[in-house]
Design a protein that fits this description.
This protein has 16 helices and 16 strands. With 387 residues, it is α/β, with parallel strands linked by helices. It folds into 3 domains: 133 residues, Response regulator (Rossmann fold, 3-Layer(aba) Sandwich), CATH 3.40.50.2300; 172 residues, Rossmann fold (3-Layer(aba) Sandwich), CATH 3.40.50; 72 residues, Helicase, Ruva Protein, domain 3 (Orthogonal Bundle). Helix 4 links the parallel strand 4 and strand 5. The radius of gyration is 28 Å and the shape is globular. The N and C termini lie far apart (56 Å). This is Fis family transcriptional regulator. InterPro entries: AAA+_ATPase, AAA_lid_NorR, CheY-like_superfamily, P-loop_NTPase, Sig_transdc_resp-reg_receiver, Sigma_54_int, Sigma_54_int_dom_ATP-bd_2. Keywords: ATP-binding, Nucleotide-binding, Phosphoprotein.
């Protein structure tokens, strides 16, 4: 049942608003407050789906109420009620975050449409928040080992900055998770997170993929196309396996980092971009530099912050937590009951040589859940977890 608060010092208008809303939809639960101070106290103690607030009021005016609501309940839409002389102020309140404004005396259709739209927006905001929380869990870093704790601490310190980050480590260790955590904990979290696997794109196409192209730039360029840097504007671009990028593309990435501008293939027009760059590689880039396969100037641009993700063999104490995490996730995905692992089974998994790291462990856990007994035993591990 939608809960609406009407904050209005003029009793007659307040009663009209409450009457209109209550009679229009008997599922609306409408409450009143005769001034801003009372309204704020109610908002602190209750969760409202919508607030209607007058602009000119004694004790605390509507602009002050709006500013307070945005601090204590930022997701709650607020519609301002304006007298004829308050229209300029009403327009300004929308710049401060108000959903809309309605004039006195309230037009019935305008009022009801605004209320319905504001309530629909609240539902979308809540759903979006839940979806982001769900997505965030998919990129959760599991582990309490010293190495993982250090990475988490570093992410907390670095995420709120725009510093470029280079994530290194063997295949399957979770470098992508680090990139997503950095994005989700940053002020860019509401912006796009664009991933580019540099190893999976042919060298002749990587520049078009990253920077876009204009029609006619090459044979198959039948129309203008934006690149990944443009798509990531306002957010984060994750350049995975950057050690496999061609020297030609490296030069253009370097320019993009230096000038915050890109050029589409076949164009001489600069496009300004505001992008945070996180890169990852399983290669030793210093050796690649010595071999002439990676630009040293690009390395120094990317490696403002270095995060090294350890191999699973270097954090075996996290294996019980990882096994538990994967069993819960697999049970949820398959709609089955969660299986348990015996202590001896866990111990045997901790003794394995995990050359494929977290990715390999996840596959083995799924295999044991499918093929093992009701409780995965040491014998199950010996039978089904072999290389």
């Amino acid at each position: 049942m939608p809960k609406i608060l009407v904050i209005e010092d003029e009793a007659a208008i307040r009663r009209v608003l409450v009457k209109i809303l209550s009679e229009e939809n008997d599922t609306y639960q409408v409450e009143e407050a005769e001034d801003g101070l009372i309204g704020i106290e109610k908002i602190k103690n209750e969760d409202y789906d919508l607030i209607l607030c007058d602009i000119k009021m004694p004790k605390m005016d509507g602009v002050e109420v709006l500013e307070a609501v945005k601090k204590i309940k930022p997701e709650t839409p607020i519609v301002m009620i304006s007298g004829h002389g308050d229209l300029d102020t009403a327009v300004n309140t929308m710049r401060l975050g108000a959903f809309d404004y309605i004039s006195k005396p309230p037009d019935l259709n305008r009022l009801l449409n605004t209320v319905r739209n504001a309530l629909d927006r609240k539902v979308l905001v809540v759903e979006n928040k839940l979806l982001k929380k769900k997505v965030g869990k998919n990129f959760e870093m599991i582990g309490e080992s010293e190495a993982i704790s250090q990475i988490k601490d570093m992410i907390e310190k670095v995420a709120q900055t725009d510093a470029r980050v280079l994530v290194t480590g063997p295949n399957g260790t979770g470098k992508e998770l680090v990139a997503h955590w950095l994005h989700q904990k940053s002020e860019r979290a509401n912006g796009p997170m664009i991933e580019v696997n540099c190893a999976a794109i042919p060298s002749e196409l990587i520049e078009s993929e990253l920077f876009g192209h204009v029609k006619g730039a090459f044979t198959s360029a039948v129309k203008d196309r934006a690149g990944k840097f443009e798509a990531a504007n306002g957010g984060t671009i994750f350049l995975d396996e950057i050690g496999d990028m061609s020297l030609s593309a490296q030069a253009k990435v370097l320019r993009a980092l230096q000038e915050s501008r890109v050029q589409r293939v076949g164009s001489d027009k600069d496009i300004k971009v505001n992008v945070r760059v996180v890169a990852a590689t399983n290669k030793d880039l210093k050796k690649e530099i010595e071999a002439g396969r990676f630009r040293e100037d690009l390395y120094h641009r990317l490696a403002v912050i270095l995060i090294k993700v350890p191999a699973l063999n270097d954090r075996r104490e996290d294996i019980p937590l990882l096994v538990n995490h994967f069993t819960e996730k697999i049970a949820s995905e398959q709609g089955t009951a969660k299986k348990s692992f015996s202590d001896k089974a866990i111990k045997l998994l901790q003794d394995y040589d995990w050359t494929g790291n977290i990715r390999e462990l996840r596959n083995v856990v799924e295999r044991l859940i499918i093929l093992g007994g009701p409780e995965v035993s040491e014998q199950d591990v010996k039978l089904f977890a072999s290389k």
